[in-house]
């Protein structure tokens, strides 16, 4: 190849590939707004609250509000060209259609607890659809056994709270960490401390509304059973934007029991953990026993601490006598147990002795994965 041509060729490649797939955010914003206004007829006043550009004063606070992993909270983390904060269904529809028209990537964010920041980070030009205004919850205790419609921008804690407002003997089987979002949690499967008795969160989803890639709003009947199956565990982001889920509630006793037992290896922790592996999966389904293994810091000797945390859907006396029979290695005493309501037990899980760690994950947004 002629040397000059070769150089031009190289320069051309260097120029066009210097920032692969990244478009100028000002143009992206203008093109997006043009399309969005056309599809929604939104007033200019409302537009400033719903479609945020880099220069908007709310851009950074809105983006940060649901960054739950500090690793993706740096100046070099890729930022969205536009943030859309929809207030009504038609704005979600427009966001989907306009992102597609402009050939950009749409990142859907509910609670922002994605471990890899997938709901607010991308390597190409992208738009964040932030569902934090979609958090209405309607609990209906008249329907057989109780049910709720919950919009996906709500958190699990908000759902638990709204159920408790209506009934202290109903609950929802899901993860314990109250700041996890309904959108990602439910569409990803969901499990928590009642999994043994009730199974996965998605087992309680009976209907949903979704905006599909063509911008249509579909309920279960309209989307069909295949798509409805896919969004219950398949991670809904690949299939559309879930606006809301309809879930069935479960019944829990008015009084539940929680307990904690801490053992070091000097106190037969190993025998206890060994036996736990056989008891925990087979005992009464109303009993969930978690064990955390930790090596005490600042201690050079080889030792292990086992921390047992448990929820029993029943009375303290019953679980103590059950454990005496099935799991004597645990040495559970009535003093280790606390009776309370189900909603209080959620607070207990967030507040146990290792509360610093759990709090980090759930309340100060650092995302340790606990909970
Ligand atoms: C501290 C902590 C504790 C956790 N505890 C548990 C637990 O006890 N049990 C458990 O099962 N899991 C647990 N998880 C995992 C958690 O359920 C998942 O990370 C879940 O995906 C988070 O949902 P989100 O809405 O908060 O996250 P987001 O980051 O908002 O979303 C996660 C993913 O779902 C997509 N998505 C979000 N909303 C929608 C929507 N409306 N429509 C379509 N796609 C959507 C996003 O694009 C992204 O890909 C925990 C995670 C953390 C960080
Ligand atoms: C808005 O819609 C009108 C009529 O459908 C069309 O002529 C116009 O090009 C659209 N403008 C943009 C910016 O999409
Ligand atoms: C927008 O407003 C015009 C004029 O009022 C109307 O004809 C059109 O149908 C509206 N479009 C949408 C998407 O609401
Ligand atoms: C992200 O950074 C800002 C500014 O430094 C800080 O105020 C905020 O608490 C951080 N959020 C997380 C999740 O680390
Ligand atoms: C939530 O409910 C209120 C009151 O019914 C309603 O005005 C609002 O539009 C709803 N929000 C969404 C996002 O559906
Ligand atoms: C370290 O471990 C040893 C052996 O188990 C124990 O006797 C000692 O109390 C521990 N020290 C601390 C600071 O935990």
From TrEMBL:
Cofactor needs: FAD
Gene3D superfamilies cross-referenced by the UniProt entry = 3.30.465.10, 3.40.462.20, Uridine Diphospho-n-acetylenolpyruvylglucosamine Reductase, domain 2
Entries under Pfam families matching the protein: FAD_binding_4
Q: What is its main location?
A: secreted
- Species in which this protein is naturally found: Eruca vesicaria subsp. sativa
Q: Does Cytoplasm count among this protein's keywords? A: no
The signal sequence is 1-23
What PANTHER family does the record point to? Answer: OS08G0158400 PROTEIN (PTHR32448)
What are the residue boundaries of the FAD-binding PCMH-type domain, all occurrences included? Answer: 76-252
Q: Where in the cell is it found?
A: Secreted, Cell wall
Q: What is this protein called?
A: FAD-binding PCMH-type domain-containing protein
**InterPro entries from the xrefs?**
FAD-bd_PCMH, FAD-bd_PCMH-like_sf, FAD-bd_PCMH_sub1, FAD-bd_PCMH_sub2, Oxid_FAD_bind_N
Q: Its family?
A: Belongs to the oxygen-dependent FAD-linked oxidoreductase family.
Classification via PROSITE patterns: FAD_PCMH
């Amino acid at each position: 190849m002629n040397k000059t041509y070769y150089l031009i060729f190289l320069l051309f490649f260097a120029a066009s590939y210097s920032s692969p797939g990244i478009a100028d955010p000002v143009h992206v914003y203008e093109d997006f707004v043009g399309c969005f206004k056309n599809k929604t007829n939104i007033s200019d006043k409302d537009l400033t609250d719903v479609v945020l550009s880099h220069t908007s004063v709310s851009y950074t606070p809105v983006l940060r509000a649901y960054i739950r992993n500090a690793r993706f909270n740096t100046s070099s983390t890729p930022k969205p060209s536009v943030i859309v904060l929809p207030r009504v269904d038609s704005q979600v529809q427009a966001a989907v259609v306009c992102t597609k028209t402009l050939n950009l990537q749409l990142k859907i964010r509910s609670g922002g607890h994605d471990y890899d920041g997938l709901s607010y980070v991308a390597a190409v030009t992208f738009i964040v659809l932030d569902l934090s205004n979609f958090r209405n919850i309607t609990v209906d205790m008249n329907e057989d056994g109780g049910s709720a419609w919950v919009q996906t921008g709500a958190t699990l804690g908000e759902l638990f709270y709204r159920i408790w407002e209506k009934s202290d003997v109903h609950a929802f089987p899901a993860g314990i960490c109250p700041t996890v979002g309904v959108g990602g949690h439910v569409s990803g499967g969901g499990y928590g401390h009642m999994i043994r008795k009730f199974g996965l969160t998605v087992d309680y989803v009976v209907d949903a509304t979704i905006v599909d890639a063509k911008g249509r709003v579909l309920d279960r009947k309209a989307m069909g059973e295949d798509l409805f199956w896919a969004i219950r565990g398949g991670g809904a982001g690949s299939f559309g934007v879930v606006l809301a889920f309809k879930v069935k509630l479960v019944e829990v006793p008015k009084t539940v029991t929680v307990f904690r037992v801490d053992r070091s290896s000097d106190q037969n922790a190993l025998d206890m953990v060994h036996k736990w592996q056989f008891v925990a999966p087979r005992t009464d389904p109303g009993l969930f026993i978690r064990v955390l293994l930790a090596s005490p810091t600042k201690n050079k000797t080889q030792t292990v601490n086992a921390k047992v945390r448990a929820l029993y859907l029943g009375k303290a006396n019953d679980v103590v006598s059950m454990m005496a029979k099935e799991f004597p290695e645990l040495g559970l005493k009535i003093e280790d147990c606390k009776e309370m309501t189900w909603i209080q037990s959620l607070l207990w899980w967030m507040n146990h002795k290792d509360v610093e760690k759990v709090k980090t994950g759930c309340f100060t947004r650092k995302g340790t994965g606990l909970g």
